[in-house]
Amino acid sequence: MKSKRLGGSGIAVSDICMGTMTFGNQADEAMAHRILDMSFDAGINFFDTAENYPVPPKEDWAGLTEEIVGRWMKTKRRDAIIMATKVSGPSHGWIRSAQRAGMTALDRHNITRALEASLKRMQTDYVDLYQTHWPDHGTAYDETMEVLDDLIREGKIRVVGCSNETSWGLMKSLAASERGGFARYVTIQNNFSLNNRRFEDELAQVCRQEKVSLIPYSPLGGGVLSGKYQDGALPEGARFSNYLKIGGRQAVMAQRYVNPKSLAATARYAEIAAGLGMSLVTLATAWSKQHDFVASTIVGATHADQVPDILKAAEVTLDAETLKKIDAVSKEIMYPMG
């Protein structure tokens, strides 16, 4: 397992990160611990969670994932783990957090209370990477960055990052940090996969110039790039199968990920993977972590059987000819997720 630094910080992480958003819902605690152990034993030292997990957000299980991860961390040396978690952004838009009665924001009150609760659930006195889960363009970035800087000075956070942020928002935050002398974001966690390459349009250049690392989530396109939704299949228990039943925001999200263009692109990528003698999961994960602006690719699993194909990507470097074939698909089927 190779490692890279998070932005310009001193923290080095494995170039594959295990995400946990299904733990406590699709994966029970025993399975979650098994997945975490397999990952750790394979050399993964970087793990990502959030106060709002598991998904989809529900008030009666919000924070359960952090509790499960916290109990697992107690079985390991704390210094051997790079743990990331997130504070919910504002709840008056597309997403309503299940935390704090849906009254969340990225102000001093919410960030401080969120971190205190996360530390308690995970049974630790610090978080290695603390991230804003989605942006709050209605709260001054100066306030957000100042409180995050204060928490770093208190020793409760090592470094900070953002998630689901725009080029404008990332630059505004970096300007606020420079202006106030505050700690700056060293990472951005955004959606990035073979089926969603929009990050390359603008944000990749921001990352390169400002020494901010992308830690992409959903490298398998929400599971679509495993091939399980091909030919109209809706597997029982699968995330988007469930979301389509739930309806509302979840159904809209499912239709963004699972649509004719994304399925057509997935079929083409599956042919490329087959020609290389590897699974599509391995190909998609390897492609994601091979970018110069990426520090670590966040993967996920609901069952231990899914982990081996992910781990195989640690040893894979795609050659120029393969990358050319992938780019050809991306140009022919542009922006499958819109």
Strand order, sheet with most strands: 9-8-7-6-5-4-3-10
Count of DSSP strands:
10
CATH architecture: Alpha-Beta Barrel
Question: Largest beta sheet, briefly?
Answer: 8 strands, parallel
- Could you say how many structural domains there are in total? 1
Rg to the nearest angstrom? 19 Å
- Strand fraction equals 5-15%
Shape: globular
Helix vs. strand class: alpha/beta
Write the H/E string, N to C. Answer: EEEHEHEHEHEHEHEHHHHEHH
CATH C-level label: Alpha Beta
Number of helices: 12
Quaternary organisation of the protein chains? single chain
- Termini separation comes to 33 Å
Commentary on this structure:
The chain has twelve helices and ten strands. The protein is of the alpha/beta class and 338 residues long. The chain has one domain: NADP-dependent oxidoreductase domain (TIM Barrel, Alpha-Beta Barrel), CATH 3.20.20.100. The strands form two sheets. The protein has an eight-stranded parallel beta sheet with strand order 9-8-7-6-5-4-3-10. Strands 1-2 form a two-stranded antiparallel ribbon. The chain starts with a strand and ends in a 6-residue tail after the last helix.
Spell out the key features of this protein.
single chain; 338 residues; alpha/beta; eight-stranded parallel β-sheet; 12% strand
List the helices and strands and how they pair.
Layout: E1 3-5, E2 12-14, E3 16-19, H1 29-41, E4 46-48, H2 64-73, E5 82-87, H3 108-122, E6 127-132, H4 141-153, E7 157-163, H5 167-180, E8 185-189, H6 203-210, E9 213-214, H7 239-246, H8 248-257, H9 260-276, H10 280-289, E10 297-299, H11 307-312, H12 320-332
Helix pairs in contact: 4-5, 7-8, 9-10, 9-12
